[in-house]
Design a protein that fits this description.
Blueprint lengths: L1 H14 L4 E4 L2 E4 L2 E8 L12 E3 L2 H12 L2 E2 L11 E7 L4 E7 L7 E5 L7 E3 L1 H13 L1
Antiparallel strand pairs: 1-2, 3-4, 3-6, 5-9, 6-7, 7-8, 8-9
Helix pairs in contact: 2-3
Length: 138
Amino acid sequence: MKRKGKWITGIAALTVGLLGGCDTNELIAEDVTEVRIAESVDFGRFHEHDVITYNELADVKVFADMIRNAEQQPGIVNMATPEYDVEVQYQDETVDRYYVWLGELGMPTSIMDVNDTHTVYLVPADVTDELIRLLEHE
């Protein structure tokens, strides 16, 4: 029953444009207060230097689109070191972390929940373009 209530909360949050998070391999939405991104140094640790913090709704929406539009890919995952570490903080102070391999303009982006390194998600090219524009603005 708790899972059903969380799913309904997730759908409601999606309608107001808030960022999502991963929970047991399903992407669901929650309220987000902040997104932090840094160049990745390796799997297993968040790079604490040169972190860019986003907390404006317009910026957070780009990351919301990234997570909401990600589609799980079949098969066994064997990925190179990620390009970026993304940390998402929610209103209840929980934190989700993702590895991101940013695609080129017009190409998909790959993301992975750091707690599930056996599953990769692909993000559509239009969302990749939004991410690139946001990151180049910094």
